[in-house]
Amino acid sequence: MTQEPTLIGGRYELGELLGRGGMAEVRKGRDLRLGRTVAVKRLRTDLASDATFQARFRREAQSSASLNHPAIVSTYDTGEEMATDGSGVAQPYIVMECVEGRTLRDILREGRKILPERALEITAGVLSALDYSHRAGIIHRDIKPGNVMLTPSGDVKVMDFGIARAISDASSTMTQTAAVVGTAQYLSPEQARGETVDSRSDVYSTGCLLYELLTGRPPFVGDSPVAVAYQHVREQAAPPSDLDDQLDPEIDAIVMKSLAKRVEDRYQSAAAMKADIERYLAGHPIQAPAVVPPPAETQYVPPVPPVDATSAMAAAAPPPRQDEPSRNRTGLWVLVGLLVVAVLGIGAYVLNGVLFDSAPTREAVPNVVGLTEQQARLAIVDAGFVVGDVSRDNSETVEADHVIDQDPNRDTFQDPGASIDFVVSNGKPEVEVPFVVGQLRKEARATLVAAGLKVSFEAQDSDEARNQVLSTNPAPGTSVADGTTITVVYSNGPVKVPDVRGMDQRDAERAIREAGFVADIRTDPTSVEPKGTVVDQIPIGGTLDQGSTVTIFVSAYEEPVTPEPTDPTTDPTTEPPTTPTDPTTSPTDPTESPTPRVEVPPATPASASRR
Q1: How many distinct helices (H) and strands (E) make up the chain?
Q2: In terms of DSSP bridges, do strands 549-555 and 518-524 run parallel, antiparallel, or are they unpaired?
Q3: Residues with catalytic function
Q4: Per the omega criterion (within 30 degrees of 0), is the bond before 408 cis?
Q5: Which residue has the higher pLDDT, 587 or 108?
Q6: Same domain for 121 and 262?
Q7: Which parts of the sequence belong to the Protein kinase domain (predicted)?
Q8: How many domains does the chain have?
Q9: Residue 568 domain-assigned?
Q10: Inter-residue contact 461 to 448 (CB < 8 Å)
């Protein structure tokens, strides 16, 4: 039986898997509404269960959707879909432009040689995208070969503007996920130290990317992410020409300026680095200073106690004599002399170490209290120590995921390589919401405050007794942090039904509505009250639940109209004759009979008033 394709957002049909990482998976999709091919990235369900991560992911994905640049993979849509694994978690997703091509990571893994000029052109494309995003106020924070694609036509496409910031904001240790492990090779020193970063952090990561394109390897490698991060903070990368002597000094200068440890020494913007690359490609002088080779290291010679130098030299090389032995015998004496000097030197070095050397230099223990766990780990490694036991505990004063205590304490001195233990806060201890439903407001407040909780009240009309607690939010039995505010819903008592008899219909409806009820309007054809007057209601008085219906009866009576009598006269509009006429000899009969006046009795009501 053929399985139905997965549909998310009511319009995106998911297809083949394009890639999977430590954070998410990307599938090829089809937008059924617009009929176009898309790429859909969905976060792992274990990360999607973090509400904070979800909020940041949505916010940053929405920001990335505003970026419209030819070197940036477009974001079309974002949303959430319930996970299909039965976890009940809302799984965020991002719908992106589906780009045909390959990532730089795939190309580098094949061991393909990228010409220096082409590596610089690719990097310039990345910097063009970053310059646009930086001017839009968005920092990528995760520039690496896996996030840069090359299309079949050779164009550059930078990906993951939305998810990169959400990941960097998440409080995770350096070894928590494979995704963080991978990106450690491209972290800026300020990222590795857990400090606030700006656009110059992206410049550093781009320098790491260019370094790898030129040499085939990142500037720093190590056995663990922490070891790599330590190198980003403390060690200077070798110039690319040390790994490929065909590279020009100008390329070394561009790379090493972008990899400066201090942000002030780097290119101050992606545009500035891109401009220097374009100057080099055009054959013009660049602005980055030339790389100065480090001075040769001074060789350490162990101190030697005073020895009879003359006798030592005599033993090593006796004065020539006329009857000097053969060359073989001379060589033997030279070898013996050198051995004597070596033994004396080693003995003197050991003796000097025993008598004069002090204990190894001890280092001050850094203060990691108040730092996040990741920041604490990096601070310990940065100071030359090793992270020891990391435990967790509740704290009333230190927020979750920050260090409460450490051992040894700050400003004490320990041997380099010593272990530093620390305790990470779980936040305030959790308490269960007490059951206070049925209690009065005063009693409920006392119970909740005694449990270490705060209280807010919300009134609700109810048939229950006035001030009686109806419910709480969160519900009773829920575990919450100490000091959480609990909303207590209490009864305002039953609502009294207003008496609207005798009111005008409009005023009666308003009074009923303001009391929280619904008016049902009916007419009473038997009433002789003025039209529109409320003559009755159901119920009269008493109390009802808010939202109940109150029926009112409105008079439909109208006063009868008495017709005016008609006089049997001529048309009043007829003008009288201007000259009198002689009366006729005999009167004539009127041509019309006058209409008799008839009295119309008032209508008799069909029934008495409802009162």
Answers
A1: 16, 24
A2: parallel
A3: 142
A4: yes
A5: 108
A6: yes
A7: 12-281
A8: 6
A9: no
A10: no
The two tokens of residue 130 are 């970053």
Q: Which two tokens mark 364?
A: 């001050």
Please report, as a single letter, which amino acid is at residue 510.
R
Whether 270 contacts 130, CB under 8 Å: yes
Same domain, 83 and 167: no
Spell out the SS3 assignment of 110-164. Answer: CCCCCCHHHHHHHHHHHHHHHHHHHHCCCCCCCCCHHHEEECCCCCEEECCHHHH
Domain that holds residue 135: 102-281
Do 368 and 315 fall into the same domain? Answer: no
| Domain assignment present for 596 | no
pLDDT of 326 reads: 45
CB 41 within 8 A of CB 60: no
Asked if 177 and 243 sit in the same domain, the reply is yes
Tens digits of residue pLDDT in 550-600? 999 999 888 777 777 666 655 555 555 555 555 555 555 554 455 444 444
User: Which residue ranges are tagged as binding site?
Assistant: 41
303 inside domain:
no
d(CA 66, CA 74): 9
Joined together, the tokens standing for residue 395 give: 């704290």
In single-letter form, the type of residue at position 487 comes to T
What three-state secondary structure class fits 198?
A: coil
Q: List for the chain the helix, strand, coil content (%; round to 5).
A: 30, 20, 45
Decide which of 287 and 163 is more confident: 287
For residues 221 and 111, membership in a common domain is answered with: yes
Q: Are residues 161 and 258 located together in one domain of the fold?
A: yes
Last residue of a domain, one of 97, 118, 148: 97
Q: Check whether residue 40 and residue 119 sit in a common domain.
A: no
- With beta carbons less than 8 A apart as the criterion, state whether 191 and 201 touch: yes
Structure-token match 């857990």, residue found: 194
Given a contact cutoff of 8 angstroms between Cβ atoms, the answer to whether 407 and 420 are in contact is yes
Q: Same structural domain for residues 137 and 238?
A: yes
User: What pLDDT, on the 0 to 100 scale, is given for residue 86?
Assistant: 72
How confident is the model over 156-214, as pLDDT tens digits?
Answer: 999 877 544 433 443 333 333 333 333 688 999 988 887 878 899 999 999 999 999 99
What pTM value is reported for the model?
0.48
In a domain, 569, yes or no: no
Q: Is the pLDDT of residue 343 over 60?
A: no
Instruction: Give the Cα separation of 130 and 258 in Å (integer).
Output: 14
- How confident is the model at residue 481, as a pLDDT? 82
Element (H, E) at 510: helix 505-514
Predicted confidence at residue 569, as pLDDT, reads 56
Which residues participate in the annotated binding site for ATP?
Answer: 41
CATH number of the domain enclosing 133 = 1.10.510.10
For residue 391, what are the contacts with CB-CB under 8 A and spacing of at least 6? 421, 423, 424
State how far the Cα of 52 lies from the Cα of 92, in Å rounded to an integer: 12
Give percent above pLDDT 70 in the chain: 74
Q: Nearest CA to 456 among 440, 472, 470, 443?
A: 472
Give mean pLDDT, residues 109-129: 93
Q: Answer whether the bond into residue 539 is a cis peptide, omega within 30°.
A: yes
C-alpha dihedral, 275 to 278 to 282 to 287, nearest 10°: 40
